[in-house]
Amino acid sequence: MFERLNTPQELFDYQLGAALTMERNVLEMLGDLEERTRSDELRRQFHHHADETRQQIGNIEESFRALGEEPDDSPCPAIQGLEKEAKANIKKADDSVLDAVILAGAAETEHHEIAVYESLIGQAQAMGRQRVVDLLSQNLEQEQHTLDEVRQHARRLAQSMPGTTA
């Protein structure tokens, strides 16, 4: 859609489109992770986050409508890089550490998503787009909550792994 970004609005629209692409990719990744994980608890967590991600996609699409724009799917190379790294690490992982590898990748992804939403919210606030701020803030809160869950699960898993000293 954009060959060159000339205005703050164009930049915002482009970045919002990249966030939409990001969440669509994350939704696919969650399905893969749900199948790969060894833990039922982690499987449920990924399933729940997939439901939240569908809502987040809806919030981004609603944000575009609030701006009077059509949803755009700008590229998101960062999420593609995180996905590529996660797949490579999963391939290398022994079954005994697979869930730990998956959780590490999930934490990295959550940190990226949080940074994206913090940036978009700041821009939307500066533009006086309160409806967009509200929608994206919902996404940010969910991502922060998911990161907390990932951290807790990773901590419990690390403490239960053989060879780990507490």
Could you tell me the CATH topology label.
Answer: Ferritin
Query: Based on the structure given, which CATH architecture is correct?
Result: Up-down Bundle
Q: Evaluate the radius of gyration.
A: 17 Å
Distance between termini?
A: 52 Å
- What global shape is seen? elongated
Helix and strand run:
HHHHH
The class by helix and strand makeup works out as mainly alpha
Count of distinct strands:
0
Fraction of helical residues? over 70%
CATH class descriptor: Mainly Alpha
Amount of beta strand: under 5%
User: Count of helices?
Assistant: 5
Mean pLDDT: 94
The low-confidence runs, each spanning 5 or more residues with pLDDT under 50, are: none
Count of the domains = 1
CATH-defined superfamily: Ferritin, core subunit, four-helix bundle
Q: Biggest β-sheet, characterized?
A: none
Description:
It is a single chain. The chain has 5 helices and no strands. The radius of gyration is 17 Å and the shape is elongated. The mean pLDDT is 94. With 166 residues, it is mainly α. Helix 1 packs parallel to helix 3, helix 2 runs antiparallel to helix 5 and helix 4 runs antiparallel to helix 5. The chain has one domain: Ferritin (Up-down Bundle), CATH 1.20.1260.10.
